[in-house]
Amino acid sequence: MSLYYKPSNKMPIGGVLLFLLVGVLASALLALVYIYAIWYIPFVYINVFICLGFGLVLGGVLMLLARAGKLRSPVGVGLLALLVGLVAVYLEWSVYLTLLFNAEATGTGRDADTSTSFSAALFADVFTHPGTMWEAIGKINETGTWSLKGATPSGVFLGIIWVIELLIILGGAYLLARSQADEPFSEVANEWADEETLPHPIGFAQDVAQTRTALETGQFHALTPYVAQSETDPFARLKLHRAPNDHNCQYLTLENVTTKIDDKGKATQSTDTVVQYLAISPVAYEELKKRFGTLPVATQESYPSV
């Protein structure tokens, strides 16, 4: 038996089809919302966050689809996510060119305005002619269509912006979808393991290698309760994973947590993984839940949020 969980790399055909079909449908809807947002919101800088939202929402949808389809191959899911991400980019360009080709300018000078509308027929024509689309993108790159601080990005600079946009969308889709395929799955019960973050914080693992070795050899007494001293004291967070109908599918994840307070007094936590998906016995699982599954009533308010 391996010390750590290893995905089986199984990809049920029904799950793959679900992932692709629903993923493409979600891409079409998100592409429409994304392009309309950047078309009508006049603040260019906000477009970065809109693009980031596009990638994260698409990735979240694909993550849910990978879970629903029981796709357990990180590489396979990652490749499918990239494929859906590329389709999403193709769709958003199709929507953008549809709005651009259908745009009408009215007025002059400060009174100038550009209006547009979505045409399903025009969209279908653009979508089914990738060569024409590529030519149009090339012409847009030569002149640009929007301004930044009085200048209109074009050429190499505009191309770099488009590449960054592409990477954000593909990156969100790939990373989130693949993360689901990495999670523990019971091949016996044919179900994903549930994750539970135990409420009682653990003492910070100062020597990560030593703590990892101790846990790998079953020395769970190395985990000690965290005693709160201040809001910024580092601590560790313990997560347990168990398949509901397979109590032999049980794993442990331990994360070191550090807290920083900014100039405005806002606390920000960052985590570093000590061990992830370490296989544990049913006895160890119950022991850890008993030790760290609840907080002492009198001291609950003194512990950091987990």
From TrEMBL:
Listed name of the protein: DUF4199 domain-containing protein
The entry's keywords: Membrane, Transmembrane, Transmembrane helix
Chain segments annotated as transmembrane: 12-37, 43-65, 77-96, 156-177
Organism: Hymenobacter negativus
